[in-house]
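To close the chapter, one final illustration. This time we ask the reader to focus less on the individual chains and more on the assembly as a whole: which components sit near each other, and how the overall shape emerges from the parts.
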Amino acid sequence: MPDDSPHEQEAARLANLERVRALGVYPYGTRAEGLVSLARARAAYDAGADEEHQASAKSEHPVDNRPRVAVAGRVMLKRDGGKLIWMNLRDGSGDDLQIAVSKRDCADPGFEIAKATDLGDIVIGRGPLMKTKAGEVTVWAGAFEAASKSLTPPPSKHTGLQDVELRYRQRYVDLWANPETLRVFRARSAVISHIRTLMEARGFMEVETPMLQALPGGAAARPFRTHLNALDIDVFMRIAPELYLKRLLVGGMGRVYEINRNFRNEGVDKQHNPEFTMLEAYEAFGDMGTMIDLTEHLCRESARLVVAMSRGADIASVPDTDLRMPFGEIEIDFGSPFQRVSYRALFQRALGFAATDLDRVWAKAEELGILRKYAKHLAEEGRAEEGRRATAGELRGQVADAIVVNEVFEECAEPTLDHTRPTYITDYPSAISPLTRPKPSDPELADRADLFIGGMEIAPHYTELNDPAVQAEKFRQQLAGLDDEESTFRNFDEDFIRALKVGMPPAGGMGLGVDRLVMMLTNQRSIRDVLLFPFMRPE
RNA sequence: GAGGAUGUAGCUCAGUCGGUAGAGCAGCGGACUUUUAAUCCGCGGGUCCCGGGUUCGAGUCCCGGCAUCCUCACCA
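The assembled structure is written out below.
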């Protein structure tokens, strides 16, 4: 009798669970020996079938020496033909494989277990590989075992799991129901592993620095605050590892890198998750230029890896000309040399006047409405008359020119970059680069370059500041410009200055947004699609 | 923070003008030893996101709320 409770489908599965138990079989399986992935099983057929077993079939006394395998997988499809049951299994190898359970050929109680198998169950099949009339490689089960029960009905076998929210919240279903999801995360894992290999090959040592910090620094961002009970003090999740990695340079570690999470208490959108993965690297006696070479190398070789994976080909066989990665409506060219343009040149090209032409910059800022938020800030701080918007003339002098130049730059110049060509913007203004060494030839400019790919900022590169006096002064300037809320967690890092006084070698540094790079390489428009468990509001 | 869209069966989705809640797959019963989204016969399954309101009557209209997505703002 059909169960008319709301949990009809679960009840049916529980009934099948009991059918398996009644056979004297534990439905949730045990350790299993000799299993091969479905992809390897298929490969075993291709390798073994042509030579051995076909040679045997043609001989006078054919023996059944078809390759025998043991496979495990989740049941995606089931076609019960009465005394012969067909199923399609899926595992994490990125392949599906068909299995047939015949009443005649399968050892007891395998056939009865197969009868009681529901879509979504995990099963084990052992037997020879064969090809059906239609040419499909199939495990002809001599034994069939239950490995785990799925009490929950699976998503549609046609469409998979489409609901975006469910895909993020129930990634454990998304991963096996939607092959594309598994593809993205296999690529992500391989890229990060490959980056480690590339970094080690260049002599960089991986380190781990504090994620729980008493004094969050190294970037301009609001931190998460938490509490350390043992000492009864507030501590912070790190916003960047930079100040600790530089301490390691002082200590004599010449080339260090860290791949780990940063936490920033800010907006959540398609490009920002509260926690995200960053590669940060520092090279003693390098500079911005060596770092630029490094990120270009890492990005290009990561692209090569992803292309090789998609082809099932060797990484060395993929030429630079094939590194055109689809991203939405465009293709991003990772194979050609990355382009370079200076901050001021890009500004001039996009705006039609120089970044140093401050009258026109301020006028443009006012035209764009950029000044409004500063007027609001000033009003909130009581530095301007309340209820009235300060004019550009009044704001000028209270807001740094470089900040306004940069607002105009980000609004008007950055979007004009060719999204199909990864591009370094070089020679940023020193005033907005507090941890970077000013250029000796022009102290107004910093030895800093930012890599943009597909319209997204992927990585900044710096020639690091190692003069403790200059660094201390820049810290002071930065703190002076902060409002009350920010200054409660932004402090002058005395120990970092003390470390610089010990002497840090000249160095290049960079930070690469790993999630964003993976987005580019896997054609995902949202950072949530490259994070296994993106942050979600609690249900 | 503002605006827009979405929320209906386990999954994917229809639902017209306000008038008894629909389909495919999944599920249940039956048949079937080479099927490929198996097929054939039969059957059951609903907090229409939540809470109010209008109405004789609300999945549908109105108000409030929640969640997700998109755009913008904020934010390196």
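Residues 197 and 242 of chain A are 22 Å apart (CA to CA). The radius of gyration of chain A is 30 Å. With these observations in hand, you are ready for the problems at the end of the chapter.
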